[in-house]
Amino acid sequence: MESARGVRRPRHEQEAGAPQGGDATARDCRRRPTTRWLLRPGRRAREQERPAAARPRRRAQGAGGLNAFKQVIDAPVASFFASCVHCGLCAETCLFYTETGDPQYTPIHKLEPLRRTWQQEYTLLGRLARLVGLAKPVTDAELEAWSPLVYDSCTMCGRCSMVCPVGNDITMMIRKMREGMAAAGHAPEGLVTATQRSIQSGSPAGVKWVTVQAQIKRMQKQFGISIPVNQENADYLVLMSSWEILNYPEYLGAVGRIFNKAGATWTLSEHAYEATNSGMQIGASDLARELVGRIVKAAEDLKVKCVISPECGHAYTAIRWEGPNLMGRRFGFEVKHILEVLDDLSRTGRLKLKGSIDKPVTYHDPCQISRRGGVHQQPRTLLRQFAPQFREMTDSGVMNWCCGGGGGVSANERAEPLRIISFKRKKAQIEELGISTVVTSCANCRVVIEEALEHYHMDVELLGLTELVAEHLAED
Amino acid sequence: MTGLELLIWARGPGLVLAVSLCIFGVILRFIEILALGRKADLAPPRQSSAGSGWRTIATRSLPPPGMLRRAPLTYLGGYVFHIGMAIAVFFFVPHIELFRGLFGLRWPGLPNSLVDIAALAAIVALLALLIGRMVDPVKRLLTGAGDWLAWALTFAPLVTGYAAFHHLFGNYTLTLALHILSVELLLVLLPFTKLFHAFSLFLARWYNGDIAGRKGVAT
């Protein structure tokens, strides 16, 4: 397997794993193309060099942020803010707090500007307080100060949402808050660049179709398979993330081998090969919609039955859960994560596995796939077929700890030092098991973990589950 | 105004006023929340989420694995306070008589000695939680005037009730009047402080469970 360590790329080219919209988040913002400013390259960079007072249109952008805040607040959000008792338990679930001990990383605190917007706009007492000048208005400077809390120290992993005793879905509110932060111009540079590239070239890393073609040729030669492109009426449209195209093309080879064996028809699309969605990560639903729309159009043009989200966490959330809400309609095709498809094939007897890995292995649950996506049994069912020594980490499945790089954090250079610190949680989990083989199913988790393993000089092998499945295909 | 006059006002017009304002406030807050609406989720659910929200209302009362160890004071203090207070409020025989008078419903009470222990435990737990809030950096960051107010509003009825029951202060009539007045203040302000979670948490937990349930994640 090719190691990611061999290929260095600028950090801002990284794509990431991540968010979840409150189901209707996306559509809350459909009529609000306020994030188009993101598409003007260099704008933010120039702005950041100047003091806030000297920035033109700054106030307008700040107001755009508050308008976005107002638009994303719905009944669930109001019920969450109304219920918070300030118990602080969410801090104990957040790896940015547990690994730093810094109270500012308390999840509910990251939402303070959004909470005050709710209070001042949508509660009687809050409105009265604002009327008589007792309420503290949310300022643009405050939003700027909150940017690292909302983008750098939250991977939208969703652990806090699982634990909050009053039931607050804090993660969903962070997703919503990012809409306002992006509209106000306070998204981090790395994510802005990734989003610009996605819209302009189709991929956050600027990967073009010719690169995909080169990898197709390589995989066809390496595994002796044929990889169909632009084929109509196939069962599956296979998508990839930039990371898979650049670093883990074996994923494509694995999918090809598995589908050939299972007799499934599949295709790639020249017009929609990239599954990631920086628009969703940055909190720009209009741009997220454009990115999902490309996939939907390709799937409908090719008349496929099912679109397969690759081994990428946030891509799954973007297409499966936010997609229909972003587009404002249900799709005429199914959306599944590759592990769901493999599990289906295995259950129906079309995918038979053999052999066994002769060492203990564990599984790192990508947050958006397990906790925020519901695909947590399938990887275990698959792994157990060829990894008899499979062992769970403490806090596994839907309570797993994030790698520290989801939610766009890995695409955000500013967050890098904090991300490395936050990895100590995963490090402790792996060390507690005392084993050296970790399997996962998210290319972004893979890149983040591989970099951190290198940083901490850990001798741990990291494997992609789809590739492992392909290596254990029964020969009939 | 003497203690007796105060007591008569508190048990009569005061109580009616407080209960009415409380009900008005709760309805107003629910309207504030629900009027914001919620768009239908167009993503097909992995499984029917029917029941998931309701289950979460119950399951969120228990600490997820490992959490009790991470935050013992918050969990244990929270349990002792809530259970102790519920016993004192709903199972003290004179309180049940009051509910019968107000709403016409009655149920069996618990022996006074048990209610006494429960009330004392709730008082001690509230004090422990207060100290925890002063000491813990996370709670300190989150704490504002509203949190201190909510604490005081909850503490006052417990302490005055306990004092009245044990005749701790010389003037029983006045203590009882203060107890009832403190409950009335609590009722009036409950909808407008974080104490409203007593009602809104059912909504919040339901939404959370519904969102997760659609994705096939049990919370």
Task: Provide a short characterization of the protein structure.
Chain A has 476 residues and is mainly α. Chain A has 24 helices and seven strands.
Q: Which short descriptors sum up this protein?
A:
heterodimer, A: 476 residues, mainly alpha, Glutathione S-transferase Yfyf (Class Pi), Chain A, domain 2, 3 domains, four-stranded parallel beta sheet, three-stranded parallel beta sheet, 24 helices, 7 strands, 49% helix, 5% strand, disordered N terminus, B: 219 residues, Fumarate Reductase Cytochrome B subunit, 10 helices, 0% strand, globular
Report on this model:
The complex is a heterodimer of chains A (476) and B (219). Chain A is mainly alpha-helical and 476 residues long. Chain A has three domains: 4-187, no CATH class; 198-347, Glutathione S-transferase Yfyf (Class Pi), Chain A, domain 2, CATH 1.20.1050; 362-471, no CATH class. Chain A is 49% helix and 5% strand. Chain A has helices at residues 25-28, 43-49, 58-72, 75-83, 89-93, 95-98, 112-122, 124-131, 140-152, 159-163, 170-183, 189-201, 209-223, 242-246, 250-262, 278-282, 285-302, 313-327, 338-347, 378-384, 416-422, 424-433, 443-455, 465-471; strands spanning 236-238, 266-267, 306-309, 334-337, 362-363, 437-440, 461-464. In chain A, the strands form two sheets. Chain A has a four-stranded parallel β-sheet with strand order 2-1-3-4. A three-stranded parallel β-sheet of chain A has the order 5-6-7. In chain A, strand 6, helix 23 and strand 7 (461-464) form a beta-alpha-beta unit. In chain A, helix 9 (140-152) crosses helix 11 (170-183). Chain A is globular and about 75 Å long. Chain A starts with 24 loop residues before the first helix and ends in a 5-residue tail after the last helix. Chain B has helices at 3-34, 52-59, 67-70, 72-91, 93-103, 112-135, 137-142, 145-165, 172-189, 197-214. Chain B is globular. Chain B starts with a helix and ends in a 5-residue tail after the last helix. Chain B is mostly helical and 219 residues long. Chain B contains ten helices and no strands. Chain B has one domain (3-29, 71-214): Transmembrane di-heme cytochromes, Chain C (Fumarate Reductase Cytochrome B subunit), CATH 1.20.950. The chains are: A mainly alpha (476), B mainly alpha (219). Chains A and B meet through helix 4, helix 5, helix 10 and helix 18 of A and helix 1, helix 7 and helix 10 of B.
